[in-house]
Structure formats: structure tokens, C-alpha cells
Amino acid sequence: MKKAQFTLTRGIFLLFCSLFCILYAEAQTPQKYNYQAVARDISGNLIANTQIGLRISIRQASASGTIVYQETHLPTTNQFGLFSLEIGTGTIISGTFNNIAWGNNTYFQQVELDPNGSIGGLSYTNMGSTQLLSVPYALYAKDAGTAPPDADSNPNNEIQTLNLSGNNLSLSNGGGSVALPTGTTYIAGTGINISGNTISNIGDSDNNSSNEIQTLSLSGNNLSLSNGGGSVTLPSSGGGSGWNLTGNAATNPSTNFIGTTDDQPLLFRVNNQKAGTLNTGNTAFGMNAMNNNTIGVTTQQMVETHYIQILTEITI
Fold it and tell me: Taking the model in full, what pTM does it have?
């Protein structure tokens, strides 16, 4: 009697608890996707711990369309009536799963069930057809087919080079440029080579043309090239903070001056010979002035002496 229940048309139904239609490739082939359902009899009782027979058909364009692929499975349900399949790995009846053009048409999955699959002489009951729909990962992956390719087939033109022209340091292939302070000596860091007016990147060793796009950045006095391109340290006196030989503008007398900020004299030279000295105790100007003095005259003493001399002349 129980067997009769199973063979009634529509006397058996599958409660679909989840249906995973994620296509993926393990290494190269085969492709497959997961299918999971719960089997119950006409009374709603679980078909538990039973080997059942399933025939899966992939129909094109409609629920009754042409069968492009068909296979069978003999899964065993668990205590909850749950069974799982990897569609694409069953016993093939017709078609080639890898040749299904998923992107060119709509497809429907037809499921047929025989609850007595373990007995043999399989007799399937059609459980219906459902359209296969995309899942989020598949929706994302579809864009890979229309992703814009490289503008050309030359992998060598992705490599960029640095060039120094005057005080303009530029990166080829639209990598941008920065203006460097003049009168600066540059020392090559790791992955950087300086030859004349050309700065080049010599640190690439992975032979990967996709990670050659680099950018320059200047932080303080550190000039760096992205993606492991190395960096160079610019002299801290650069950056336009020094006094120009042709004069200066927009100065602030409260912060800009010529002199020292420690207890050291300010020296002047002509032809690399001392020609002037300013310090806390002595002041002298002229070639080799104060070279032989052991006790100098302070600026205050010079002023006082000159003042006394003027008073003396007035009195006389």
C-alpha cells in the first residue's frame, strides 16, 4: 500500500529547503552546482534514511523546452529527509554539462523522483520544472565577460620610468610629476637608479605587468614611488626655505633672518678667507680681521669709546 502511495501521480512532493545554483569550476573541469531538498510522501511524512532515485534535466528556453542535459542520482536521505546533489556530476543520460551556454539563453531545471531508487527498475514521477536564477556571485561574475581589456596586446608598455628635466620629476604613462627644489643633490634609495638627469626604477622583479602603474608622492623631504618603487630623501634645507641669491620677497621680520640660532658666531668669507665676524663678544669686518686678537672689543665698548671721544671734542 505504501508503494502505491509513492507511485501516484503528484503523490510525492519535494519540500525545497534550499536550492543553490552557484556555478564554479574546480581547477579546470567539471563544472557543477549544488542542489538540496527534503523528500516527503503524500501524507507529509519525511522519507528518511532511504535511498531515492532522481533524474535531473536541464531544459532550454522554457519548462517544457529542449533537454540539453540529463543525468541521474541515487542519494540517500538523512533522518530529516534531507538530501544533497552536485548537479553536473551524476550519471549522464544525454548532453554535456560543460557545453551548456548559460549566458546565451534561459534554462529550467526539471526534477523527477522515484522513492524506490534502491530497488531498481526506476519509475520517475515528474516533480516540476523551475527556472535557474542567478545568485549574487553569479551576477557579479557575469561582468567578467564584458570587462574592458587592455587597450593593446603589448605587456611592455605598462612599465613606467622616472625622468628628471630641470627641477621637474615626472613619471611616464600619465603617472604625474612633482616640482623639486633647485640646487639639490639627490641620493638614490632602494629600487631607484640615478644616471645623469634620468631616474629609473630598478626594483621590479616579479615580471607582472599589471602592477607597474605607480605614483609619486612627496611627504616632507621624502620622495617615494608606490608599489615598492623605493624612495629618495631630499636635503632638509630644500623646499624653498633658504635665501635666494637674487633677493627674497614676502619675508616676515619676526621669523625670517640671517644669523644663527645657537651660541655660535656668524662668519663672512671672501675668496674663502675670513672677512667678518659677529659674535656675542667681538665684531670685526675686513680681510683677516681679528685673526691675531686674543682679547676683542665688544660692540658696546666700541660705541662707548666713540661716545667719550665725541664728548671730549665738544668740551675742548
Answer: 0.41
